[in-house]
Write a structure and sequence with these properties.
heterodimer; A: about 110 residues; mainly beta; about 0% helix; globular; B: mainly beta
Chain lengths: ~110, ~110
Amino acid sequence: DAMVIQNPRYQVTQFGKPVTLSCSQTLNHNVMYWYQQKSSQAPKLLFHYYDKDFNNEADTPDNFQSRRPNTSFCFLDIRSPGLGDAAMYLCATSRTGRETQYFGPGTRLLVL
Amino acid sequence: KNEVEQSPQNLTAQEGEFITINCSYSVGISALHWLQQHPGGGIVSLFMLSSGKKKHGRLIATINIQEKHSSLHITASHPRDSAVYICVVNRGSTLGRLYFGRGTQLTVWP
């Protein structure tokens, strides 16, 4: 059974058109993470939530926002996607932040 | 300089060979993770270590906290082991703060 679900798996958007990526989890984990992974690079942490507490990485562009309306769901909003934002976006969860992370399958974003 | 360094960056092996991937880090950690990423993006967590050694099937992971070093070993390698292996450390002082290595691309030929 899927534990970390990401929708959609593939997203095509236009340059500058806002887009929202979705992540849900059935694990009831406290911590949820969003990562950006570009080709041949390691995943880069964008931000994470511990419960409702939002933690932004210092180098995450303002163009990227996140919402966590409840324990199960977390959204990544890209307000004005640029060509450089085309990447795989990975969602992960962890029970406390110091334990194993469980990754979703990712959403591959293409910006035209 | 990256806080987490992996070597080698690329590794090619023949089926059946014993494989070692190394990870060195420069920060204090509470845990170290080894992840496996197959083509297409799916990531699987293989191990989480804070000391000693763990074994799962043909995979063995070790960590030496004093030397700030971890190794991932694959015995009797198989083409299905072909993937990117990523070392990730969890900073002890900051909840949720992770540092990623750049990954090791492993290709195992039949």
